[in-house]
Amino acid sequence: MVKRFNIVTNHYSEISIPKDWKISTHELDANTKINCVHCGQPIKFGDSYPSMRYSTFNDEPYRECSVCYNNYLPLAKFKKSEQQF
Ligand SMILES: [Zn+2]
Question: Which of 8, 19, 38, 51 could cysteine-pair with 68, CB 3.0–4.6 Å?
């Protein structure tokens, strides 16, 4: 189960990802190959980043590749600063 945060509506929704993607929250071995939860790009767990939008229903973040993570970062920061007002 993948929970996705919608930054525009501030709501979470349940999404499905392709069955052949291996998405992950934790790995014992940093060399384990996983897929980015956003774009599906194969990455090593050690090179991935904790997603700020995709999580399990226990709020454990899934992992994203550096491109997806960095593309989303300005949005997340903007949203955070907006919430302070
Ligand atoms: Zn990606």
Answer: 38
